[in-house]
Amino acid sequence: MSDFAQTLITAIAIGSLYALIALGYTMVYGILKFINFAHSDIVVLGAWSSYTLASRILPKLGLNPHNPESVPPIWVAAVVLLAAMVFCGAVGFTIERLAYRPLRRAPRLNVLITAIGVSLLLQNVGQLDYVFGASPQKMPPLLPSWELASFTFGEGETARRLVIGLVDVVIFATATSLMLMMQYLVFHTKLGVAMRAVSFNTDTAALMGIPVDRVVSFTFVLGSTLAAAAGFLYVMKYPGMNQPAHTIWVLLGLKAFVAAVIGGIGNVRGAVLGGFVIAFVEQFGAFYISTNYRDVYVFTLLIVILLVKPSGLLGSPLREKV
Amino acid sequence: MVGTVSLSTKNREQKSELRTGNALLGLLPIAAGLGIATLMHFFLPGLIGQFYARIVTDIGITIVLAVSLNIVNGMTGQFSIGHAGFMTLGGYTAATITYYGSMFLWDSAGKHGGFLGSGEWLFIASCVAGGLFAAFAGYIVGLPSLRLRGDYLAIVTLGFGEIVRVILQQTGKTIDDVEDFKNAGWAQLIPPPVGGAVGFDGVPKYTNLFWVYAVLTITIVVAYRLKGSSLGRAMISVREDEIAAQAMGVNISRQKVLAFVMAAFFAGVAGGLFAHERGVIISPKDAGFQRSFDYVIMTVLGGRGSITGVTLAAVLLTALPEMLRDFEQYRLIVYALLLIFMMLVRPQGLLGIHEIWNFWQRPKSSVKSASPEAQV
Amino acid sequence: MSPPATTSSAVQSADALLDVDQIGISFGGLKAVQNFSLKLPRSGLFGLIGPNGAGKTTVFNLLTGVYRPDCGQIRLGSTQLGRGKPHEITAAGIARTFQNIRLFPNLTVLDNVRLAGQLRNSRGLLDTVLRTRGYHQEENGLREKALNLLEIFELQDRAEELASNLSYGHQRKLEIIRALATDPKVLLLDEPAAGLNPQEKRMLAHSIQQIRDRFQVAVLLIEHDMPLVMEICERIVVLDHGVTICEGVPSEIQNDPRVIAAYLGGGLEEN
Ligand SMILES: Nc1ncnc2c1ncn2[C@@H]1O[C@H](COP(=O)(O)OP(=O)(O)O)[C@@H](O)[C@H]1O
Ligand SMILES: [Mg+2]
Q: In this structure, what CATH number is given to the domain that contains residue A295?
């Protein structure tokens, strides 16, 4: 019972991270119709820039970043998160400007290849010695390791504890509030209308006087800031950080993309739904079957969904105009 | 312009030279390739030394992978980024067959017999089996995703490679002892014990220049003959315009699956060659996307659909890093910039859709813009 | 040649080659085509007209399987096409051209035609790779057939050029040749005269009739050029906002007030 509940809590926390990342994929896909492969690297960038910043700030406060007992005041976490979001937003803006915008009219395959190029570039520049380096690091703790609630089930040998940590709550709360802001922005603001118009038909939107380039830029900035937040939150939960080009990161991004596809690519609510579906499948698969194959469950689910409902859970089928 | 349409009823005389079929003539290029492969096998190591002979072997395997990937990515215009997954799957299949097959047949996992001896025949048969298994996996994975829009295939193939990697990591230690193997029950052999995360060590090292270049010959002949045939035209039409292709009666799903399965087959065979290469221990991480990206980059750089272009790119991108080992850190950065740069300035690749010899022939495409009809 | 104005549709339906019964489709809320019916006789030459956005191209897309009709039946000869895939419908005998030219730009002119000609080709991978006698026979046959077609349309000199290098007029012509190469029973032409000059249009009108006679195909023609349509079509169907507003012989259409209203209201594009 407690194991089940623990898995549930993890699934919710991880699911909200997948959802955050999936939003970036889905927005870019909705507007430009290509998979932004470099999106997962923005998540990595968010994580690693958080690390870099935190390990610079903490000593100034007289704290040892490598001592897990030293917890800084809560504003440090907020500052690091914001800084990472701003920085990644700027990087996202730049990438779109330099690499993707010149290809606006190019075949989709070319943009996809470019995105892979950008992804490789970010990964391997990140691994250079004078950037983040090619060895794993440990994220200094920025949140107190409070246990908000703790239950014990059973007695003696078989006793198990269920813990709801502050981290899980912070992840869920931050991710949810960011997603609600997104939701408001897309469905209740003029900018959101413009985004949806561009996503519906770029040429028509341009004819109607919508500044397409600005909307696209904004979409990238928005997606990148969400990715940065996801990266930050991820290393709050799992402080052992792998080097930037590590497969773990790519898989994280890939699963988030799968979440977007499963939810219905281009659909904002679908991305959120997909994020949670993926996390549940992964976590409960790991719990009930075997941890070793957690990625296998996700991709199997993807193939099943593609077979049964190719446009995703909430997506509507696309018909190419001939 | 649209034709005075004489619509004459008389049939035109056959002016085009007709090629008549002759199965023996058709085998000529393959025979020539095998001859060259034999010569390379016996004389090249002596001429250039073991180190460079090894690089030439690597290059051969890489060309097989790049040229086969090009059938999907270049000719058919789909986008697979899990080629290394198929390679590794084939490689493990082949290695399992030779390793345990040798134990079964000859009581030892070591090499058996000399050039073209029974050991080598087991080896090449196992490579073909690896190819078939990879092709089967390609069929299972490709069927759902190829029916959808192109970039889903990218995700599914990428995921496929990772799944292969994860699954291979979970396998057990190889059985080194012949007696242990012969006494092992089915429970120990399924799933096959192929070394887990550390890789499959102890595979007999059969791969040599002859077999690599024999496989390469067949791969290139198949790719080239495909390109010039009705089947190849149908694949290219899928790349050019799916809607128009369908309207001309092309079953686009079938063409995509066929291309994909063929590519997976050759990747599997190449994986067999790789797994049996001296100095190589095939391991789960070979299935990862990093290696797949290497082959994608070769097809993009060489030119989408150009067999010679992709071959050239495979040679360059295999040889260069070997020469520049000190710059390993920067290799992938250079690749990345190359990809981005190519898409910005020359998206069709070095040779575009052409073969290298097309550049010697009379240029046909530059004349007509001057012709009077251009104003219409 | 053209049937008298009084011919009842019952007579036609008996030997209609292409029998379209009440097909329709909507995109989201937009009913692009509703209750479209048509009986095209063997070797008939019918016109499909209507203002821009009326749903004419959509009818072609429905007939060729690019879109699946929400409802209705399509029969060609004795085969029910219904919800077949586009390539199956082409193989059954309906070929088309595209309003916005869709050649294979990086294939040669010859290859564009050969590709279309090969749909009943039976040679598989093994024949292809081994270059068997059968393979050569089939490829030679294809080549001859394609060159023949190109010669009929006087494009044989451009056979080895890339399709993208042809002039606009030649590209339109190649679209028709390519469609004919699939050996169709019914040929759907989507605005083949768009962008041509008056003299070219005249020649096109003439050749469409000749194509019909020589290749024994029934033709359904979408065209904005009224004089052209009136001159060569035996019957005309008028669409507006996805609905068939009128059908009849040219003289009936010309004077039908509904047609005039549709065009005035819809704003006929002047080519
Ligand atoms: N795939 C599609 N998705 C949405 N709307 C479509 C699609 N195809 C056609 N339409 C709409 O259907 C209507 C009819 O279009 P069309 O058949 O192209 O007209 P035309 O008579 O000019 O050929 C138009 O309003 C067009 O926008
Ligand atoms: Mg139209």
A: 1.10.3470
